[in-house]
Amino acid sequence: MTSTATQPAAVHAPALRPQRRPWRRIVLHGIVLLGGIAMVYPLLWMVASAFKPESDIFSDPGLLPATFTTENFTQGWDALGIPFSTFFLNSFVIAAISVLGNLLSCSLAAYAFARLDFRFKKTLFAAMLATLMLPFHVTLVPQYILFQSIDWTNTYFPLVVPKFLAVDAFFIFLMVQFMRGLPRTLDDAATVDGCGPFGVFWRIILPLMRPALAVAAIFTFIWTWNDFLGPLLYISDRELYTAPIALNAFLDSTGASSWGPMFAMSILSILPLFLVFLFAQKHLINGIATTGLK
């Protein structure tokens, strides 16, 4: 009885990917590093200038102050005759109300487009998307005439009331895309249990929209806090100034500008944005990754 020896199957080693040349990686990392330095340097220069005497801000371009001082912070805090905390509070109030208005109105509008059936739905949705291509400056004058006619100038109403009317098409589209990824069987089950359209939205859809709501809240807060043109246009009373308008008051086109105090208050003004991004970064990335990119 003869036994046939089994030949081992030929094993083909996987082809090795050609490795990049070390000098190419060094060059790429160097370019990225230089780009990062170019973007961060203005911020670092502003921070360094806030701790310099005003006479050394433009004469000494270095990042390390030759003379370290904190007088810019103490002078800038009360430079406008009002504590700068008032301007921070005004900005926070407007940003908080704007976040609440956008989350409520945009989520309701998005629910209507994503889940409800009504006449001219596609036409209205296309018109809503078309407003994304409409520059803000086109509607600036008509809005100002409207708000002036109802005596809303020098108040916060022109800045916060439109947020409750779903005027930010970007967030509506963002939430519509997220809702379209939710199974409609959830709506059907809630309807069988006796929920109406608003009940389905409030009890089922809204709790599942946390990633999209987090993105809308973060961007609304950042954009509202940084808004300069809106408060400049509608607010004239100094006690109602927001932080960006108060910073602009340090500049004087006819005389000497207070650069040191302005840089010091600018650092304090960006701290809330930095903290928001720092603590909400996870929610921001998760919301963008799961919204509209499926």
TrEMBL record:
Origin superkingdom: Bacteria
Transmembrane regions listed in the UniProt entry: 26-48, 87-113, 125-147, 159-179, 200-223, 259-280
Keywords: Cell membrane, Membrane, Transmembrane, Transmembrane helix, Transport
Chief location bin: membrane
Protein localization: Cell membrane
One Pfam family hit: BPD_transp_1
UniProt topology in membrane: Multi-pass membrane protein
InterPro entries, per the entry: MetI-like (IPR000515), MetI-like_sf (IPR035906)
Listed CDD domains: TM_PBP2 (cd06261)
Domain ABC transmembrane type-1 residues, every copy: 88-280
Family: Belongs to the binding-protein-dependent transport system permease family.
Entry protein name: Carbohydrate ABC transporter permease
